[in-house]
């Protein structure tokens, strides 16, 4: 075999690999678009949960493809703890305006003012209390379906979820009472006061998400990419130094190159050490990762008294 033949064979192999990867992402995108359209057809008052994070931005991209910019048939809903990263909320507002989508924001601080949320102490994370504000928003707007960006690979309780996950009239999830989903046929019947949580990217992985972001050139908040940040190492988790999370006596503050694999409440979300500045570089890092993104970055999963399954039963995302 001569050099020219070798070169041609290598080019053919690379092209085959490229098309195989695209075919995989195409199948996931097609499934997500199908589910987003099913929600629009089956429910009267759905909403898409939109935090400005990478998973909700992927869903928003699929919704744009499903319906067209300015034609998404349901509003975007954000439950704001008041402790979100400003880079994320700024990008949330920018993307919603860019698409011409209706954005509804409801705040945990408003629930605190009403007395429906009470913190055990001022420094307590508000993350778990989003459930109360979310259920209040559902009642206020009479939403019958909420589209979320949870994936099964994130956490074992989320792996139990159906794509169309039923919630009772108290907003609670009963994992043993979920409806079968055979041949992509979904039972969307509801009794008064009930609703569904719908997870169109359930079958995606973190790697799929980053490959799709790379392919579609989806813009993200800057903190998803490498930047220098002051952190404190807390038993392997890098806690960011902020006004809300100041260093304590004895803490060693370091400046490191970090990025966020997932974003949430500042008080419980940790970055990881990284120099990845592009989606392609993050794909390579993700291939080598041996800990899930929540396992590597979410303080509340390690310190909360309530498991994710318990929180979900109480109405959490």
TrEMBL record:
Residue ranges of every copy of the Phosphoadenosine phosphosulphate reductase domain listed in the record: 46-271
Pfam families recorded: PAPS_reduct
Molecular function terms, GO-annotated: ATP binding; sulfate adenylyltransferase (ATP) activity
Region (Disordered): 295-317
EC number: 2.7.7.4
Group of enzyme by EC: transferase
Domain of life of the source: Bacteria
Entry keywords, A to Z: ATP-binding, Nucleotide-binding, Nucleotidyltransferase, Transferase
GO biological process terms on file: sulfate assimilation
Gene3D superfamilies according to UniProt: HUPs
InterPro entries, per the entry: PAPS_reduct_dom, Rossmann-like_a/b/a_fold, SO4_adenylTrfase_ssu, Sulfate_adenylyltrnsfr_sub2
KW Nucleotide-binding (keyword) present: yes
Similarity section: Belongs to the PAPS reductase family. CysD subfamily.
Protein name: Sulfate adenylyltransferase subunit 2
Organism of provenance: Acidovorax delafieldii
């Amino acid at each position: 075999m001569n050099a020219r033949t070798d070169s041609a064979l290598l080019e053919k192999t690379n092209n085959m690999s490229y098309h195989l990867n695209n075919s995989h992402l195409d199948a996931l995108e097609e499934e997500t678009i199908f589910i987003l359209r099913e929600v629009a057809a089956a429910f009267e008052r759905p909403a898409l949960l939109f935090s400005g994070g990478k998973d909700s931005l992927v869903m928003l991209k699929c919704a744009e493809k499903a319906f067209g910019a300015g034609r998404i048939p349901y509003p975007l809903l954000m439950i704001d703890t008041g402790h979100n990263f400003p880079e994320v909320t700024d990008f949330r507002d920018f993307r919603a305006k860019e698409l011409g989508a209706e954005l509804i924001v409801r705040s945990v601080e408003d629930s605190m003012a009403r007395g429906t949320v009470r913190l055990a102490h001022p420094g307590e994370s508000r993350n778990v209390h989003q459930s109360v504000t979310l259920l209040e928003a559902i009642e206020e707007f009479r939403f019958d379906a909420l589209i979320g960006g949870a994936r099964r690979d994130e956490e074992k309780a989320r792996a139990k979820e159906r794509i169309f996950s039923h919630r009772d009239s108290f907003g609670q999830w009963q994992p043993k009472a979920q409806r079968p989903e055979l041949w992509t046929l979904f039972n969307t019947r509801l009794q008064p006061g009930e609703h569904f949580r719908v997870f169109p990217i359930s079958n995606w992985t973190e790697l799929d998400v980053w490959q799709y972001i790379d392919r579609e050139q989806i813009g993200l908040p800057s903190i998803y990419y490498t930047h220098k940040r002051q952190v404190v190492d807390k038993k392997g988790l890098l806690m960011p130094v902020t006004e809300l999370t100041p260093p304590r006596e004895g803490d060693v503050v370091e400046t490191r190159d970090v990025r966020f694999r997932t974003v949430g409440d500042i008080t419980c979300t940790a970055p990881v050490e990284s120099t990845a500045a592009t989606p392609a570089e993050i794909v390579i890092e993700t291939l080598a990762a041996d800990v899930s993104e929540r396992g590597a970055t979410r303080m509340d999963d390690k310190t909360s008294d309530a498991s994710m399954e318990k929180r979900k039963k109480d109405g959490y995302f």
